[in-house]
Design goal:
The structure is a single chain. With 363 residues, the chain is of the alpha/beta class. It contains 11 helices and 10 strands. Helix 1 packs across helix 11, helix 4 packs across helix 5 and helix 5 packs antiparallel against helix 6. It is globular, with a radius of gyration of 24 Å.
Length: 363
């Protein structure tokens, strides 16, 4: 039996592809694993950059599937994807968190890093939050604001903080990790803000006791202690700016991606409820892999597109009935939101041509 091969789509009519994106400066795609968040983020970034908007696509998913989608190697620093348009991409590196405002220990717990010089030049107890945790009896101590976030979330937060006000990029598109990781990422500002606030209060209370507790802070330097407090205040300010941006619908659109299946609808409902609890607006719902003709979804037809034959194919008809049932259940989920549909493609969605088609569906 001969093996069936599917040739990749090399090009489409570029006149029908979107040039630019009607979206705020931050676009985040979230949802359960495997629904197509990376594809949507890459397609949005490509369309955004096509009109000359300097756009950065950030992947906070440790699976690093963004490189596969864009057909290019992407590192932990912004990489220019194309020479003719200002499209950049970066993937998180959890190990890089140890070099930023967060430190990851061997148990995968993210820790806020104190500058050793500001603490008096020691490498010991106050060189990192780990020393403070030991003094307080562990990372779950109330003073530390509860359990510390994980390494992936800390690394993602480090990138978001880094690129929030980066003048190089006019728009940042974020491909978030699967739902559970995303929710922990969104909880991180509250966790870190609480922890930083308590640490600031703790250190300021001890500032008058620097003489008697000089050994604890590596010599009791008032100047060094104040510098350390200033560092924490700066981190807290960055976290607050991120929180403000995520909650501002004029600056951020959190787009929930789902597939037309019952379990995906259920998880999307939960995600939207949690996001609303964080005060983060969800302006768009993307329904991916819908058994519809490309003409109905994107408004244009191409010879290469193979639409599911729901009239003559019994399998296609049954799958469409399952999808219709799930979409009917999701009606409340769609209420008051912009709903984008992306069809089910026979071809792999990789490379500029196919991402351009997906971008037209998201436009």
């Amino acid at each position: 039996m001969s093996e069936l091969t599917v040739e990749p789509v090399e090009s489409v009519d570029e006149s029908e592809l979107p040039v630019g994106v009607d979206a705020p400066e931050y676009v985040l795609y979230g949802g359960k694993g495997g629904v197509g968040k990376t594809t949507c983020a890459a397609a949005t970034g490509l369309a955004s950059a096509r009109d000359g908007t300097a756009t950065l696509v950030v992947s906070t998913d440790p699976a690093h599937s963004l490189s596969d989608t864009l057909n290019t190697e992407i590192g932990s620093e912004p990489t220019r994807i194309k020479d003719d348009i200002p499209l950049y991409a970066v993937e998180i590196d959890p190990e890089a968190a140890s070099e930023g405002p967060f430190v990851t220990d061997e148990e995968g717990q993210a820790e806020a890093e104190f500058d050793a010089g500001a603490a008096g030049g020691t490498d010991g107890a106050m060189g990192g939050l780990g020393g403070l945790e030991g003094m307080l009896g562990g990372g779950d101590h109330p003073l530390a604001g509860g359990a510390m976030p994980g390494a992936d979330e800390a690394a993602a937060m480090q990138l978001l903080l880094e690129y929030l006000d980066d003048p190089r990029f006019e728009r940042v598109v974020v491909d978030t990790a699967p739902t559970g990781h995303t929710l922990r990422l969104l909880e991180l500002p509250d966790v870190m803000d609480s922890m930083v606030g308590r640490l600031l209060a703790f250190r300021e209370k001890l500032s008058g006791m620097a003489g008697s507790l000089g050994g604890l802070f590596g010599g009791g330097s008032d100047e060094g202690m104040e510098e350390g407090v200033d560092d924490l205040r700066e981190l807290s300010s960055k976290i607050e700016r991120l929180r403000t941006a995520l909650r501002d619908p004029s600056r951020t659109d959190f787009r929930v991606v789902m597939v037309p299946e019952e379990m995906s609808v259920v998880e999307s409902e939960r995600l939207i409820d949690r996001l609303e609890g964080f005060g983060i607006p969800v302006g768009t719902v993307v329904v991916n892999r819908v058994s519809e003709d490309l003409t109905d979804v994107a408004g244009f037809d191409e010879e290469w597109f193979v639409a599911p034959d729901t009239e003559h194919c019994e399998f296609c008809r049954r799958r469409w009935e399952v999808q219709r049932s799930a979409l009917q259940r999701a009606q409340e989920l769609f209420r008051g939101r912009d709903v984008k549909r992306v069809p089910l493609f026979a071809e792999a969605v990789q490379g500029e041509a196919m991402l351009g088609v997906v971008g037209s569906c998201l436009d």
